[in-house]
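Many groups now describe folds with learned vocabularies. In that spirit, our science desk offers one protein's residues alongside their backbone shape tokens.
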Amino acid sequence: MYEILIVDDHTHLVDSLAIGLPWREMGISNVYKAYSGEEALELLNYRSVDIVVTDIHMNGMTGLELIARINEKWKNTKAVIITGYDEFQYAREALQQQVCDYLLKPVSNEELEQTLRAIIDRITQEGNELLNQQKFAYRFRESLPKLREMFLLELISGKSYPLSALQDKLQLYGLPFSSEKDAILLCMRVEEDYSSTDLYSLSLIEYAMFNIVEEVFADKFHVTFCKDSHDYLIFLVQPKEIEHSRRDHSAMIEDLARLSQHQIKLYLKSKVSVVLSSWGGFPKDILPMYRSALSIYADYIGYQTESFFDATQKKEALEAQPFAELYRSQTFMELMDLEQWNGFESKLNRIFDELEGGAGSGAREYGLQIYVTLLQAYSYYLHKKGKRIFEVFGRELDKMLKMDAGWSVEPLKEWAFGSYVQIKAYSDSRSDNIRTDLMERIRRFIQEHVKEITLQTVADHVNLHPVYVSNLFKQETGENFSNYVLRLRMEKAVQLLKHKDLRISQIAHEVGYQKPQYFIKLFKTQYGMTPQEFKNGL
């Protein structure tokens, strides 16, 4: 969807055009209005306008001067000028300013619509040509290694994809992995001290390690890799063909992993320890495989160097395994930080689906994990907001802090969703209060400074971005910021006309207009008579 700005010092023409065309059908989502070149430039600072329609002859800045300023700062914005027959010489200058088209007054809605549709088609065509340029394809290919690394990082962080999105991503990144085949993670810990090595040299060493592993596995296995947040090198390994048993593949992978470890030491003079995870489904089991491999470093390897551990050969199995969904990104704390309450509720549903579906006799143990994690997230969120936890949960706090060790799944689920509803209600109420207070500050500031007020001065006063202030104002009041300011100025002008013996030019200046003629035009549009006629009527 595109955005358009209509500029003319004849306010009734602007207003008429703004409501006279089927903008949505034309692919235009927003129509902005400005009644002078200066006002148009101010609006362009905060809006991504695609097309500007402007009259040539206006008080103050002319349409051609406006277009010249636009070309200096917003080169991709298209311009259409409106001109009279006696202003045709201006049209030549307009063509030199790369104006898309010019229309002769009077302009019909049908003629303007036809012109704008042609410009929109041109913008769309230019966009398509831009996307098809070879330099963008080249840049994308250059970025592929980083994109592949980020993809694996997302998987080991617990991000999940719908099957169709996963297949699209694999195809886009040129990764030949299949969701129908199991995979293994190879985790490598570098044990040389590279603390004094510059970043560029260290990156070359890690890149060489990636290449060695990839080349060693290339004949029989697909490999992609990343570096995790702990500086471990993580390799995802999947057989190219299912021509051998899992046991045979495991033996091959172990041999190739040992060979990689040896070649890194031989060619790069670097010691590494290697852990092979258990087999798991791709991509659904990547997170537990990764966590299990990291735990082996802590439980079995510790500070030993040049170790090798194959989890597929580990006979013993722990009775309790980490509760995957509870710690999968995004965590409860991350979701609450952004106040993504729909995501929070969806995560609760997934956690209890997992608990009810596979926890079995371990439900009580996992329930304690869920309870502690939620309570920690709630207290973290409320303390960030300057609240104590009892101020939100009240008498329910005693129940929260005295969890019965015998809770079954259903009471825990009831408590979890009930406490979620309470904290969401607090968040919604807090947001409403903040917005109400903010709007009160904005209104008060505008009323006190209506003479010189601009969107930027309001934004500076409340330390927020002008676009946010503009959107907030429209959402909370149903009125555009500029219309509200205009209305206040006209109301103040009426009061001055009633109670003060001032000239019209003085009143214009008092309400914020340097040019009396422009003030007179706005007043007449607002009240249907000039200020002098209004004064005479009194």
